[in-house]
Write a structure and sequence with these properties.
Strand order of the largest sheet of chain A: 1-2
Radius of gyration of chain B: 23 Å
Order of helices and strands of chain B: HEHEHEHEEHEHHEHEHEEHHEHH
Oligomer: heterodimer
Mean pLDDT of chain B: 90
CATH superfamily of the largest domain in chain B: Periplasmic binding protein-like II
Number of domains of chain A: 1
Strand content of chain A: under 5%
CATH superfamily of chain A: MetI-like
CATH topology of chain A: MetI-like fold
Distance between the termini of chain B: 69 Å
Low-confidence stretches of chain A: 319-324
Number of domains of chain B: 2
Helix content of chain A: over 70%
Low-confidence stretches of chain B: 14-19
Mean pLDDT of chain A: 83
CATH architecture of the largest domain in chain B: 3-Layer(aba) Sandwich
Largest interface: A-B, 69 and 73 residues
CATH architecture of chain A: Orthogonal Bundle
CATH class of chain A: Mainly Alpha
């Protein structure tokens, strides 16, 4: 117990330096200007409307994400089937895709001239596209589910896989039916990971920006969008600062609620090896479930993104005067063009450089956030009173506005921003709460008896950790590592920062192509997006395949 | 433990002594659309024994915001990318330091919006409606000639515009309507709304999702874009085309003129070099490089514009122009007014 302060030292110092300090600076500066504050007071009713909508869409999105994610978590934790690793990896890919790419994919599928509408119009001879997607609340909800289901699937799936099946079997022997088993056994045991997943998904939906802006049309505004508009277009920092504080207070509130509820629900039991619950589907019901679930995954996660590789290798040439007919032709020109610097620009991005930079930033982020997050998560499993109070503040980076934080970085670090290492540090600031929350349920599930038994048998604390804690949480560590990796590749939090053009990432390259008209620019954006898809899917497959040494069958 | 501060001090001194004494670095803060030929920059660097470091900071408003925030400890020596809609705001905050470049004499007076030469004009462009030529040909539809035409029933549901609160070309188009209709602009927008105008968040969405003549093959044949976009559609066409599939509507007042400025940031330690870089930006070679890099027009009359521009773009004779001080005073009100007209 004497060593506890050390657990907290590094992560706290990190967050203080890279989150609280820049945030404090920008908030203080904004409050000082008086002129802005008056205008904010008059806009208060409008801001409250925005807050109301933000909460509403976040609640709804989280609910839908749980409805989608939990059955899929059950699928992955209980069944073995063909193509499972690939499907699992594919559910994690959306999280890393920049919104502009996701919006392009959804539009290609569901937009006014997307495949679905074109197919419906051709089949039923309609003159106007029957499905309106972009600009609706449905689009926002579907995109949120698309993005965030992986959090539920991984967190809940991992702990479900490690549930001891003997408990449920014992209950059945004693006469319990399925419903009783689910409510009295499964649910309470899954509660910590369910709650963690719910909180994380909710915070991501609450601070959603790109999805609202690009897919929601112009009538929907969340707090984050409003902060962006106030800061970047109206240059009204005081309004942006006040909205940021409202956002932070809400985040704090939900984090406190989470801490209260979760601390009462952790039930340490013998976690089993993950493979114990896996089996191939046997009965017809099980086979139907696996089949339908797989198809559903493909429809929701794969189909929207298929348009991107398709567009990158297909050149659509409309006939002169014939708007409706489009003659597709296969082409690799877009990929070839990626390697050519056609106008000799200084800012040309060789595709391999972009890939390399993205991956380097991501690897650094994973290492840093695991190194910092693990001790903090350990300490939080049996928190002291002080730690219980500090716990909710750890979630704040996830609920803070990226725009405000970026501006805070400029104030706090000034020319240090040109140090390219700052980008993975910014990513780590966001990944850290994510990692801590993912590790916490797993760590809490380790029964103290196991550790005590090992100590009694003569193991040193380090050996206890190595042979008891580590194998049990290795799955959770992998999941946390994947999350950190995806946060970095998805470049959350770095949106408002300054970009050094010498170290471009895949995301900045895509944005650059889409900022100019012309078929080759659009094609190159699609090609780079496809490369991003391939790189991320492969990386996740590799990470999951890595058996951490000593983790044994876990 | 007591020797720790001394150790730190020793290391600090060692590090600063180890700093390489190479060429100086000049830092230029620009918006995301900035581009220039590598060859030109290398020439400038070797001629002046300097290393240019570019830093990109988002769009015009975002970059200005960052420059204002860091006013007391400037992030760069030069700021490029503030346009005439943000100029007044930029000048009021005093981020620039005046510089009387010798190149200013050759720039037409219409571009020199700052008499004190704190912000110097570098390039200009027009925000115009682009239309899909093959759509209008195939329907035998005449092209709209003025704002009022856009409210006619034959053009129903055919125009996509960007939200002025989130998009710079969207704001420019709104200002063009304000310049034309004055206080009646809100009625005009209500009429546009009744005629089915589509509003999206940004140029990327409007052009690549909604516009029919782009690779997105969207439903609307008219989009608020730039006067230079038709040229880009030729340069980046795959397969190559002989003429642009799009053109701009350049009726009186239908386009909004945007001028972009550069300035030396107050507090720079490299004033002489910064001045040389600005002279370089106003030199014929840089100005002639801009069209194919950034799709803007040079302010220096002697700079020639590539053939693909002269053959495929239409420069408006009478673009809408509002002076920067008026824009600064009213932009918020105009955007609110637009909001209430579109979301009653």
């Amino acid at each position: 117990m004497k060593r506890r302060p050390i657990y907290w030292f590094a992560p706290s110092l990190f967050l203080l330096l890279f989150f609280f300090y820049p945030l404090a600076r920008v908030l203080l500066l904004s409050i000082k200007t008086e002129t802005g504050t008056l205008s904010v007071l008059t806009s208060l009713p409008e801001f409250l409307n925005v807050l109301q909508f933000t909460l509403f869409q976040a609640f709804l999105s989280t609910l839908l994400t749980l409805l989608v994610g939990i059955p899929i978590a059950y699928l992955f934790s209980h069944f073995n089937f063909h193509g499972k690793p690939l499907l699992r990896a594919l559910t994690a890919v959306p999280f890393m895709l920049p919104t502009v790419v996701v919006a392009a994919g959804f539009t290609a599928l569901l937009g006014p001239r997307g495949w679905v509408n074109l197919a419906l119009m051709n089949t039923f001879n309609l003159s106007a596209p029957p499905i309106t997607f972009v600009g609706t609340l449905t689009a926002i909800l579907i995109a949120h589910v698309f993005y965030n289901s992986t959090i539920v699937i991984r967190l809940v799936g991992n702990s479900w896989a490690q549930l001891d099946p003997r408990l449920a079997q014992a209950a059945r022997v004693l006469g319990a039916d399925t419903k009783t088993v689910q409510s009295r056994i499964t649910l309470p045991l899954l509660r910590p990971s369910l709650l963690a997943a719910t909180l994380l998904v909710f915070l991501f939906d609450f601070t959603s920006f790109g999805v609202i802006l690009l897919l929601g049309g112009t009538q929907f505004r969340t707090l984050e969008v409003e902060i962006y508009i106030q800061a970047m277009h109206f240059l009204n920092l005081p309004a942006a600062a006040i909205l940021s504080m409202i956002q932070l207070l809400c985040t704090l509130f939900f984090s406190i609620v989470y801490s209260r509820v979760v601390n009462r629900s952790i039930v340490p039991l013998n976690p089993r090896a993950g493979s114990i619950n896996l089996r191939p589907a046997k009965s017809l019901r099980e086979k139907l479930f696996v089949g339908f679930a797989s198809v559903f995954i493909i429809i929701l996660f794969v189909l929207p993104m298929v348009a991107l590789p398709a567009r990158s290798v297909v050149r659509l040439e409309p006939d002169r005067g014939e708007r409706g007919t489009i003659q597709p032709a296969f082409t690799l020109n877009n990929y070839r063009e990626l390697t050519i610097n056609r106008n000799g620009s200084l800012f040309y991005v060789p595709p391999m450089n972009a890939v390399r930079n993205s991956l380097v930033y991501a690897v650094i982020t994973v290492i840093l956030s695991l190194l910092l997050g693990f001790p903090a998560a350990s300490a939080l499993t049996r928190p002291s009173r002080l730690e219980k109070i500090v716990d909710p503040f750890l979630m704040l980076p996830l609920g803070a506005s990226a725009v405000t934080l970026g501006l805070g970085y400029i104030l706090a670090f000034n020319r240090w921003l040109y140090f390219p290492f700052l980008i993975p540090l910014a990513h780590t600031t966001l990944a850290l709460p994510f990692v801590i929350r993912s590790l916490q349920p797993a760590l809490a599930s380790i029964p103290q008896r196991l550790r005590d038994a090992a100590s009694v048998l003569g193991a040193s604390p380090r050996q206890v950790w190595q042979s008891v804690d580590f194998p049990i949480i290795s799955r959770a560590l992998t999941a946390a590592g994947v999350f950190a990796f995806t946060v970095s590749l998805g470049e959350f939090g770095a949106t408002a920062m300054l970009v050094r053009p010498e170290y471009p990432t895949m995301t900045t390259a895509i944005a650059r192509f889409l900022s100019l008209p012309g078929g080759l620019n659009y094609g190159q954006a699609m090609a780079m997006a496809t490369i991003l898809l391939l790189v991320t899917t492969t990386a996740i497959l590799i990470i999951e395949k890595i058996r951490l040494p000593g983790s044994g069958e876990f | 433990m007591k020797s720790l501060p001394i150790l730190f001090g020793v290391f600090a001194i060692l590090f600063t002594a180890c700093a390489p004494q190479g060429p100086q670095t000049l830092t230029v803060l620009t918006h995301d659309s900035f581009s220039v030929s590598e060859v030109l920059i290398k020439q400038f660097e070797s001629k002046n024994n300097v290393k240019i470091a570019f830093v990109k900071g988002g769009d015009a408003g975002s970059v200005l915001n960052k420059a204002i925030l860091s006013k007391d400890a400037p992030l760069a020596d030069i700021l490029y990318g503030v346009d005439n809609s943000f100029l007044s705001r930029a000048l009021d905050t005093g981020i620039y330091s005046p510089y009387n470049s010798s190149a200013l004499t050759s720039i037409p007076a219409g571009f020199k919006l700052d008499p004190e030469n704190r912000a110097l004009p570098v390039d200009y462009g027009d925000v115009c409606i682009n239309y899909d030529k093959s759509y209008f040909d195939s329907k035998n539809l005449p092209v709209p000639n003025n704002f009022s035409d856009l409210t006619k029933p034959e053009y129903k549901n055919l125009l996509v515009v960007e939200d002025p609160s989130t998009s710079s070309p969207g704001l420019a188009f709104l200002m063009a309507t304000v310049a034309h209709f004055g206080d009646g602009y809100q009625d005009y927008w209500s009429q546009l709304k009744a005629n089915g105008v589509i509003v999206v968040d940004s140029w990327e969405t409007a052009y690549y999702t909604n516009f029919s003549a782009s690779s997105g093959h969207g439903p609307q044949p008219m989009v608020v874009s730039y006067g230079s976009s038709p040229a880009a559609e030729v340069v980046y066409a795959d397969p190559p085309v002989s003429e642009s599939p799009t053109a701009s509507l350049v009726g009186d007042g239908m386009c909004f003129r945007q001028i972009e400025f550069v300035g030396i940031l107050n507090g720079t330690k490299n004033r002489a070099l910064a001045g040389k870089f600005i002279d370089f930006m106003l030199s014929k070679s840089f100005q002639e490089d801009m069209p194919l890099q950034m799709y803007v027009y040079p302010v220096i009359p002697e700079a020639s514009v590539p053939a693909v521009f002269t053959q495929n773009t239409q420069v408006p004779v009478n673009p809408a122009i509002i002076d920067p001080a008026t824009i600064a005073a009213n932009r918020d009100a105009w955007i609110q007014g637009w909001n209430s007209a579109m979301n009653p």
